[in-house]
Amino acid sequence: MFTLIPFTLVVGFIVAAAYLFRSKQNLPPSPLCFPVIGHLHLLKDPLHRCLRDLSQNLGPVFSLSLGSRRAVVVTSASAAEEFLSHENDVVFANRPISTFGEYVFYNNTILTSSPYGDHWRNLRRICTVEIFSSARLKESLEIRRDEVRSLLRTIQEATSGGGNNSVRVELRPLLSGFTLNVIMRMVAGKRYYGEDNAEAKEVRELITNTLELAGFTYAGDFLPIWKLLDFDGYVKKLKKFGSKLDKFLQGLVDEHRRNRGKAEFKNTMITHLLTLQESQPEYYTDEIIKGLVLVILFAGSDTTSVTLEWAMANLLNHPDVLVKVKAELNAVVSVEGRLMEESDASTCTYLNNVISETLRLYPATPMLLPHASSDDRKVGKYDIPRGTWLFINAWAIHRDPKLWDEPDVFKPERFNSKEWKTQHGNFLPFGIGRRACPGMGLAQLVLSLALGSLIQCFDWEKVGDMDVDMSEGKGITMPKAVPLVAKCKSSPIIDNIVFYLISFTLLIGFIVVAAYLLRANQNLPPSPVGFPVIGHLHLLKSPLHRCLRDLSQNLGPVFSLRLGSRRAVVVTSASAAEEFLSHENDVVFANRPITTLGEYVLYNNTILTASPYGDHWRNLRRICTLEIFSPARLKESLEIRRDEMRSLLRTIHEATLRGGDNSVRVELRPLLSGFTFNVTMRIVAGKRYYGKEVDELITKMLELCGFTYAGDFFPILKLFDFDGYVKKIKKFGSKFDKFLQGLVDKHRRNRGKTEFKNTMITHLLTLQESQPEYYTDEIIKGLVMVIIFAGSETTYVTLEWAMANLLNHPDVLVKIKAELNDVVSVEGRLMEESDASTCTYLNNVISETLRLYPATPMLIPHASSDDCKVGEYDIPRGTWLFINAWAIHRDPEVWDEPEAFKPERFDSEEWKTQHGPTCIGLCFRFIDTMF
Ligand code: HEM
């Protein structure tokens, strides 16, 4: 204390001298101050309110002495624009150097605290490319959807205990857990909330501590002597905390380095950065990577969860607004019996207005992040010295009565007005200028999906009669002082959908009628009478192709069905099939439906058979054409097909030997399926893997595949997974992936060995070396999966049908044999692939088999990517398209005696002009050239 008095005097003297020196400058007005501490004593929590009150006397731009620092505070939109845009933006693009940044944010080098310059520009570029680019946001969509569903499930479990009564739900831990899981999964592939292990607990603690310790209110940042002597032990605490946090971040980076091949670490931001580290190790150091992880974690999670909590609190205090948001969601989303998706956000204008109004009244960072000037500057009439801290009071600007009508009232409608549309400068929750928030797009996606889903699925009310307390608490992001607790019960959308599956209640019936009226001015294909909610699902029977042909007999060759929340169109005539899948409509219908199987087993619907039409699909198709179906590759694999055929003949011959001169019984199915599977596996992987494990995988896949899972038509069933299908399929997907990864790794290890030399996997691994970003392991595994399934199953089924037809038509069998004798046996040799073109009758038998028994009688469903008109009908975007090849092949208007097996028909002149009616080409998108 004794030494502090003379010290204070000396500093007082220095400050007075500085004051005199500066007096020639026109600084913004300032209140009276004390020596040394300046205006520090004026600062009170919450800071944004205290600074707004000061501005009421001092004007919209005023200055403060905070110990040894000068700060300027701005509380008007026009002044904020003057400081942070146009020619002043660069000068104010620095950030203040803080003690917290020194010990926790890698000496103020991370994106949020780094000074403006090349290093900052580089970090910002990396973030934009690796996290915020539309490609990355699309890649991480599944994470956000999955975490929202998990949040809904947790609340649903809580409400199910209350029966018809509402239950109390503590929202803060749920919302902060949700946003942290989203961010951590994008960054590091891990979730820490909802998991009960030591690591998760430690991380939750680290985050809480970061938010507690961060901020710009530490006395040592303004009075360096305070920091030097560390009276309050803050520096010691920060040092300890900084090294603990660094240890955790280093652990994450090392874990990724060790496990880069594994599925869960594959597409994370850390893995992408480690790949960049390989090519530019001097720039992408571990410290840069850890800093980026920290920034995203720190800037991305709390801001979003705090906003969600404020939004919910506002809605509880304004039930009329809540009703309007719900009505909008019902009209846009629930009407289709599904849950909200991110893509719905653009249509839900009122929901977006609620979010904007929340950010206006309760901006998550009410003072933005402080800026600092890198040079002396004149802004308006004021001189602003270099090193000045700049506080923009967004909270005060958002409540400025000169800019906003009834500024303190929650009125989402204001964002609809024409006026607002020209006044964007008055609304700056994400900042302005070059340091503005780069995460705005991601934040808006998360906010609308989470808030929309919470409102869609549950009914919310405040607890008791009193309004929710809206006072602000302490913290760098502005939390509610009192954590939000609300009363909640499942919304009719959940209960009724489940209930309706059994007994069709009126409310959903009403929704369906509303949907019907909404669609009434469209000319959809005719449709049978359906039930509410389930639509026409009850009409579907096995075998589907027969059932749909029977329906078409009343409804015509093009009709539509409602399958739960999905619309489907069924086509049973050749001319209509041609209209849908060729000419100008082909591209619109070149998509595939998104299915749950595709999500968890077919690499999130990205493999060739399931992928939506677009660049990715085109690329896969090109790879397949070059690497499997090109004449050169087919020639290379000819020996495999010949060898496997000989082996099949040998097996049957050995069986017949046992019968002597008598015929023996031969079970053909296992022999034919073994044959086609061995051919495929040898072409793909060089080995006959027809062992028990693969056998089981294939049988299971065939069991699971198809388009009959109820959750694909009622997303709510998928969300709650009543029948455990999602769980089962997730497990199966990871088992299958393990098998495929095993194949790829084996090839990687043994590429030199002869048996692995000329396989499809080896070719793809060679391409991976030159273009690793495109030929990822996932792309290779997806291609292998497609070839195994599309290539083997369809072919052996066709062979079995062909043999069965021949057994029933011995006259046809005799004719083939005669043709083969003439072409092949006469030369005393076995048949070769090159003989096929000469054996016309044999080919006719195969065509006739494919006509009567097409291996995929309904083709693989297509889906429309846009609204379109086909013939006289309007077909809405997202419609599933079923082409009934089986019915087309038996259409009596096209085929003479359609049910009879008559291979000769393919010889006729008529047939030669009638290729349209056969769907062989469509049916076998991949395998026709192969076998
Ligand atoms: C409701 C959500 C959010 C709000 C209200 C918000 C608001 C802000 C504000 C006001 C700033 C400072 C702007 C300035 O200094 O002028 C900022 C900076 C930043 N935000 Fe956000 N933010 C949100 C979500 C996110 C998310 C989700 C991420 C990333 C995942 C993110 C990453 C960042 C980063 C990296 C910066 C520092 C930019 C720089 O200094 O160059 N933010 N944010």
UniProtKB/TrEMBL annotation:
A GO term for molecular function: metal ion binding
Subcellular location: Membrane
CDD domains xref list: CYP81
Family: Belongs to the cytochrome P450 family.
Main location class: membrane
Organism name: Eruca vesicaria subsp. sativa
Annotated InterPro entries: Cyt_P450, Cyt_P450_CS, Cyt_P450_E_grp-I, Cyt_P450_sf, Plant_metabolite_P450s
PANTHER family in UniProt: CYTOCHROME P450, FLAVONOID 3'-MONOOXYGENASE-RELATED
Binding site for heme: 437
Membrane-spanning ranges: 497-518
Topological category with respect to the lipid bilayer: Single-pass membrane protein
Listed GO CC annotations: membrane
The keyword Phosphoprotein is assigned to this record: no
PROSITE patterns (UniProt xref): CYTOCHROME_P450 (PS00086)
UniProt-listed SUPFAM superfamilies: Cytochrome P450
Protein name: Cytochrome P450
Cofactor requirement: heme
Record keywords: Heme, Iron, Membrane, Metal-binding, Monooxygenase, Oxidoreductase, Transmembrane, Transmembrane helix
